[in-house]
Design brief:
This protein is mainly α and 344 residues long. It has a domain at 93-305: MetI-like fold, CATH 1.10.3720. Helices cover 72% and strands 1% of the residues. Strands 1-2 form a two-stranded antiparallel ribbon. It is globular, with a radius of gyration of 24 Å.
């Protein structure tokens, strides 16, 4: 099967997935609360509520409201976010998406750059001290609740460091707002804006420092998962006959590991990385809230607290798109890592 046909087929198969996510999310949100509460307050006369329902189509049966929502969605109207002053959901997503993506990318870079080497070292030095340390490190990563870990990081790296007179990392936000009051974002990505458009190296460093703690917090769980998967996969590959043959031919151990074993060991790890990137977006909900990071996760929490159905549905739909795209990219990478895999 040609690559183009494979991609088209996967995109077609993704349609029922997206529809299923939309359906479940919309009806669950509908059951949880009455949407009309978004448009009224304690001063709204009871006699005006029926008119408000009619104006927003809330007087229709649930299936009709859902059909109207899908129709508007196909026309590019994702609704209005009541928790964001009734601004269009797409506009709010476009504004906050760069902050979440910047955080997720740095968290993933941290997880991949450390996770893969740690997994390799742990597998090649099985049952040695470094292997025991790596397994404990990974176990801690998959066991700790992310909100608790985030609070501990803030307590140690900000509060305690500040008390001891050590350089403390910023506790939240994307940059020092009081210092850079006149900063204007162009792309939404702080590092690009500060370095390319504002030509301000101090703002760039300040942004990196603000990014360090939440990125480490968000990426630690993914780092632990990648490390464990890489170790397990590498241990399995090292028992294969072709590895024994390569060693019997007198090849250096470094060549055996990095040229012959690593390529095949990466295949299941790539699956974890692809799915984990989508998980970083959802994991950012807690991380962004604790670190006051102005991204989609913090916006989603505010939307949930305010029963903002349009925002909740928009966030869920975006996450579904990200997971579908990540799965597609993982399948494409498979063919690059292992030529025996064909798109079928």
């Amino acid at each position: 099967m040609k690559l183009r046909d494979f991609i088209l087929r996967r995109l077609v198969l993704a349609i029922p997935v997206i529809i299923g996510v939309l359906t479940i999310t919309w009806f669950l949100a509908y059951i949880v609360g009455d949407p009309v509460t978004l448009y009224i307050n304690e001063n709204t006369p009871q006699a005006a509520i029926p008119a408000i329902r009619q104006a927003h189509g809330l007087d229709e049966p649930p299936h009709i409201q859902f059909f109207l929502y899908i129709t508007n969605l196909m026309q590019g109207d994702w609704g209005e976010s009541a928790s964001s002053s009734f601004r269009p959901v797409l506009q709010v997503i476009a504004e906050k998406f760069p902050a979440t993506i910047e955080l997720s990318i740095f968290a993933m870079i941290f997880a991949v750059v450390l996770g893969i080497p740690l997994g390799i070292v742990s597998a090649t030095r099985k049952d040695e001290m470094v292997d025991h340390f790596t397994r404990i490190f990974s176990l801690a990563g998959v066991s700790m609740p992310i909100f608790w870990f985030a609070l501990m990081l803030k307590y140690i790296l900000f509060y305690q460091f500040k008390i001891m007179g050590l350089p403390a990392l910023p506790p939240g936000e994307r940059y020092s707002i009081s210092t850079y009051r006149d900063f204007t974002s162009v792309t939404g990505f702080m590092l690009i804006d500060s370095l390319v458009f504002n030509l301000d190296i101090r703002l760039f460093i300040d942004s990196l420092l603000h990014l360090a703690m939440p990125a480490f917090c968000l990426g630690y769980l993914t780092l632990a998962i990648i490390t464990r998967m890489m170790r397990s996969s590498m241990l399995e590959v090292l028992t294969e006959d072709y590895i024994t043959l390569a060693r019997s031919k007198g090849l250096k151990e470094r060549t055996v590991i990095y040229k012959h074993a690593l390529r095949n060991a990466l295949i299941p790890t790539v699956t974890v990385i692809g799915l984990a990137f989508g998980g970083l977006i959802t994991g950012a909900v807690l991380t962004e809230t604790i670190f006051q990071w102005p991204g989609l996760g913090r916006w989603a929490v505010r939307a949930i607290l305010n029963s903002d159905l349009a925002a909740i549905n928009g966030f869920t739909l975006l996450v579904a798109f990200i997971f579908v795209t990540a799965n597609l990219l993982v399948d494409l990478v498979y063919g690059t890592l292992d030529p025996r895999i064909r798109f079928g």
